[in-house]
Amino acid sequence: MKGYILILCGLMVAFNASAGRITMSNPVQTTTENGMILCVYSNNVYTFVYKTRSKHCPYSKSFDTSEDDN
Predict the structure, then answer these.
(1) DSSP per-residue string spanning 30-69
(2) Taking every pair of C-alpha atoms in the chain, what is the biggest distance, in angstroms?
(3) What are the average pLDDT values for consecutive 10-residue runs of the chain, which has 70 residues?
């Protein structure tokens, strides 16, 4: 019984540690007139736009879900 309680507590801590963050991949890349690269990461729930001066978007990026404007 004690083992089940420890497993349950461990699972609760693991889920709380990742709450509020999402990792997304395979962005749509566009270039603005001033040379900035816009990386649009989206799925059926979230859409995030990341601006960079790099030539390419990172393939995957983590975001706080509290940053979402939806």
Answers:
(1) EE-TTSPEEEEEE-SS-EEEEEESSSS--SEEEEEGGG--
(2) 63
(3) 56 54 94 93 94 93 74
